[in-house]
Amino acid sequence: MEQMDGLDVVGCERCDDLCRSRSRIVNGVGPADADLLFVGEAPGANEDEQGEPFVGRSGDVLDDGLRDAGLDRGDVRITNCVRCRPPDNRDPRTGELANCRDYLETEIDRINPEVVVTLGKVPAEHLLGRDVAVTGEAGDVFDVAIAGQPRRVLVSVHPAATLYDPSQKETFEAALTTAAEFTDAQSGQSRLGEF
């Protein structure tokens, strides 16, 4: 039986390949009222093993970027488009993204963030519903309807991109700085009205 328990997906069996390749469902982490919701594509091996999104090297890059932008991992919510690890760390397939879409939309709706930050091409295209040139659009904010509600989506390169191409570090950091402008984690005051 599949269902959500609060923000967590429990017992989902929608995708045969993903059910076979996962050791667990990897749900989002972070406050249920976070101003910033970061969305990756799918868990990798480290995430599947530890049961938390963005751990390992990509998680370290994300944590460092958040800190440099004046944020703490505990201040933001982090999730993925697909909650189960695809075999061999391949990209999630269109049907898998579609099968998990209502879980992601429910999480976005319940968190009600000031901005959703997409980490990489897959989540950017999934939430914006179009082709995205991530490097060229990183740091840009788009208004889009998600589950019938208006949302702001900020495009960012994936943290791993900075590991493979150090020239992407500045692009990644600039996107996180833009994201941080939507919140003031120290005072809890939103600065959204400035936009």
From TrEMBL:
Enzyme class: hydrolase
One of the protein's GO biological processes: DNA repair
Catalytically driven reaction(s): Hydrolyzes single-stranded DNA or mismatched double-stranded DNA and polynucleotides, releasing free uracil
Transmembrane segments: none
Record's keyword annotation contains RNA-binding: no
Top-level division of the source organism's lineage: Archaea
Location of the Uracil-DNA glycosylase-like domain: 27-177
GO molecular function: 4 iron, 4 sulfur cluster binding; metal ion binding; uracil DNA N-glycosylase activity
EC number: 3.2.2.27
UniProt KW keywords: 4Fe-4S, DNA damage, DNA repair, Hydrolase, Iron, Iron-sulfur, Metal-binding
One of the Pfam families matching this protein, by short name: UDG
Similarity field: Belongs to the uracil-DNA glycosylase (UDG) superfamily. Type 4 (UDGa) family.
Protein name: Type-4 uracil-DNA glycosylase
